[in-house]
Design a protein that fits this description.
The protein is an alpha/beta fold. Among the domains are: 101 residues, ATPase, nucleotide binding domain (Nucleotidyltransferase, domain 5, 2-Layer Sandwich); 93 residues, Nucleotidyltransferase, domain 5 (2-Layer Sandwich). The protein contains 7 helices and 13 strands. Strands 3-2-1-4-8 form a 5-stranded mixed sheet, with helices on both faces. Strand 1 and strand 2 form a beta hairpin. Helix 1 packs across helix 3. InterPro entries: ATPase_NBD. This is Competence protein A.
């Protein structure tokens, strides 16, 4: 699911398709957006996600063509609600990558409500452990139900492209994250909220929750989840967070009003430029994910 990222990316969400491609000698990628029918996607880990796969493939094809990609390999950004991510500690790990994956699958066999053996799985070692110092190995693990991964990959192939890398939206956005200080992050999708605490290249917290459909309950859950992340930040770092970096479906001002009782200053994860200001405001989260997925690519 992860690897060397191509210089082209496409994000699929209920807000439509956002595609981007790096441009030689430019500081910002070329971007395009196409809308989708409201019922085209329902992201999750238990049932089929792509309700109208043919229309999604057609929208991908049209949107990618507008960014003039150099090649057919694409980073495919999927909704956070379709993926589960874990930060795990281990006393030791095998040295060979092909021996690590079975260990991770075994560890997660009771942690996800789908067949872990058939799931797409990738991982990144955040820090190596030391027996002498009695410090654990710390590993970020990404898992996605196999059938749902196939849905998204097939839709992209139906558009005439190949999935080079598959990333969940928040993790894609974080590919462009460069701050060395500890930061609290929130990424809001249609059906989920991801909160993360990032310290340099380390993840102190990564948590995705499914949101209830009823608006009042959803607002309460957004506030509660950010409150939990704030408490974890303060307990772990012995200081309260000074701000929250946000990207997602709602405008930043509206999200800030929902979590106002936390006292956090809400700042945009991605500063808008003339290239992004022309796109619908509700696509800001997908734009942040695509720009992140393209960070460092050529």
């Amino acid at each position: 699911m992860t690897g060397v990222r191509p210089p082209v990316a496409v994000a699929v969400s209920s807000q439509g398709i956002v595609a981007g491609a790096t441009v030689p000698d430019a500081t910002f990628p070329r971007l395009a957006h196409s809308s989708l029918p409201a019922d085209a996607i329902h992201a999750g880990i238990l049932e089929a996600n792509l309700i109208r796969p043919g229309e999604i493939s057609a929208a991908m094809r049209a949107t990618l063509a507008r960014v003039e990609p150099r090649g057919r390999s694409v980073t495919l950004v999927v909704p956070d609600a379709a993926v589960r991510i874990f930060v795990l500690d281990f006393d030791s790990l095998p040295t060979r990558r092909d021996e690590v994956t079975p260990v991770l699958r075994f560890r997660l066999r009771k942690s996800v409500p789908f067949d872990i053996e058939q799931a797409g799985l990738s991982y990144q070692v955040l820090s190596e452990g030391s027996a002498r110092l009695e410090t654990p190995w710390k590993v970020l693990v990404i898992v996605m139900p196999g059938a749902i991964l196939t849905e998204y990959e097939s839709a992209l192939r139906g558009a005439g492209y190949e999935p080079g890398v598959v990333l969940p939206a928040c993790l894609a956005a974080l590919c462009s994250f460069e701050s060395q200080q500890s930061e609290l992050i929130a990424y809001l999708g249609t059906h989920s909220l991801t909160t993360a605490i990032v310290s340099g290249s380390d993840f102190l917290l990564y948590r995705t929750i499914d949101l209830p459909p009823e608006p009042t309950a959803q607002r309460a859950e957004l506030h509660r989840s950010v409150d939990v992340a704030c408490a974890f930040y303060e307990d772990t770092l012995q200081a309260p967070p000074h701000r929250l970096l946000y990207a997602g479906l709602l405008p930043g001002e509206e999200f800030a009003a929902i979590i106002a009782e936390t006292g956090l200053a809400v700042e945009p994860f991605l500063r808008l430029t003339s290239d992004t200001s022309q796109l619908p405001e509700e696509t800001n989260g997908a734009v942040a994910a695509v720009v992140g997925a393209l960070a460092g690519t050529r």
